[in-house]
């Protein structure tokens, strides 16, 4: 008997997969969960080839005393094991929100993404997209899968978080920007925490900031929150290129300090124009 087509695959520790698995929604199929090394090894015999359009990988349980290298190695070995069941244009999201995950270091995260892409570099996965996500909430994972995938395997955005109050649903999931331009969007949630995301059409993805960092705006004082936001916005607009402290502080003075404290919309094109004035060249986003 042929196994049913799977639209999403979730691997990692039982703690992580049970926390997220039931909250993700897919259309046209089920979410397959493998939360042990034995279950992962059995996936190629359990699922049809190229049947998985979305793959989310969490870290497996690890000895806290071990070095970081085995954890990275196991992630790549897992990627190689699941590769036969991934569709040619699968969306792959590596979630690194566990405090013990060495990929909290951006240098490790960049290397992990490159190694994962290498594991999928065959012609059979020419269209696969790999991303590293530092926030492991169902909303963030769903947004990353929508942004990276071409299968359309995730449920329509209107169905996600349907039991949430409209204002929260709209803030978390639906783009508030009226234009089609890529936009940085900042808001303060009900707990009073400042959040920033990158909006592309109707997809809101979290802005990458250093682990344990908070962000702040509406102040010209180069305090840690304003510095974290300034550096994150400039780095994202420059396509991941490093940004020196002088440029970070100047961006706080010229842009971050003038953003409304209650929330903001800042298009990438506006940041690019500011950078052109400072650098004399057009950055890449």
Instruction: Flag low-confidence runs.
Output: 1-5, 150-162, 169-180
How many separate helices?
Answer: 10
What structural class do you assign from the helix and strand content? alpha/beta
* Helix-residue proportion: 25-40%
CATH class of the largest domain: Alpha Beta
Query: Which sheet architecture does the biggest sheet show?
Result: 5 strands, parallel
What is the element layout, followed by pairings?
Blueprint: E1 6-11, H1 14-21, E2 30-34, H2 37-41, H3 43-46, E3 52-57, H4 69-82, E4 86-95, H5 106-119, E5 129-133, H6 138-148, H7 166-173, E6 183-188, E7 194-200, E8 203-206, H8 224-237, H9 245-254, E9 263-267, H10 268-279
Parallel strand pairs: 1-2, 1-3, 3-4, 4-5
Antiparallel strand pairs: 6-7, 6-9, 7-8
Helix pairs in contact: 4-5, 8-9
Quick synopsis:
By secondary structure, the chain is an alpha/beta fold.
Characterization of the model:
The structure is a single chain. The longest helix has 14 residues, at 69-82. With 285 residues, the protein is of the alpha/beta class. It has a five-stranded parallel β-sheet with strand order 2-1-3-4-5, with helices on both faces. A four-stranded antiparallel β-sheet has the order 8-7-6-9. Helix 4 (69-82) packs parallel to helix 5 and helix 8 (224-237) crosses helix 9. The protein has two domains: 6-159, Rossmann fold (3-Layer(aba) Sandwich); 175-279, no CATH class. The N and C termini lie far apart (47 Å). The protein is built from ten helices and nine strands.
């Amino acid at each position: 008997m042929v196994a049913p087509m799977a639209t999403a695959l979730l691997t990692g520790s039982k703690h992580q997969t049970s926390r997220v698995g039931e909250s993700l929604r897919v259309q046209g199929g089920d979410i397959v969960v493998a939360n042990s090394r034995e279950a992962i090894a059995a996936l190629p015999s359990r699922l049809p080839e190229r049947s998985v359009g979305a793959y989310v990988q969490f870290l497996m349980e690890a000895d806290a005393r071990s070095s970081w290298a085995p954890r990275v190695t196991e992630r790549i070995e897992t990627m190689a094991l699941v590769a036969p069941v991934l569709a040619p244009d699968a969306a792959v999201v590596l979630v690194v929100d566990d405090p013990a995950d060495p990929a909290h270091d951006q240098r490790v995260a960049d290397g992990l993404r490159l190694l994962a892409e290498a594991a999928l570099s065959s012609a059979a996965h020419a269209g696969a997209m790999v991303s590293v996500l530092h926030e492991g909430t169902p909303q963030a994972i769903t947004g990353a899968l929508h942004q990276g995938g071409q299968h359309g395997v995730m449920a329509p955005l209107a169905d996600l978080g349907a039991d949430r109050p409209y204002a929260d649903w709209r803030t978390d999931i639906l783009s508030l920007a009226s234009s089609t331009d890529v936009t940085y969007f900042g808001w303060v949630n009900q707990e009073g925490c400042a959040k920033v995301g990158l909006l592309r059409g109707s997809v809101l993805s979290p802005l990458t900031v250093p682990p344990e960092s908070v962000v702040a705006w509406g102040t010209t004082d180069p305090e840690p929150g304003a510095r974290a936001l300034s550096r994150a916005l400039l780095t994202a607009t420059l396509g991941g290129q490093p940004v020196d402290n002088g440029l970070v502080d100047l961006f706080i003075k010229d842009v971050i300090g003038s953003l409304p404290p209650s929330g903001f919309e800042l298009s990438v094109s506006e940041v690019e124009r500011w950078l052109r004035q400072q650098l004399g060249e057009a950055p890449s986003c």
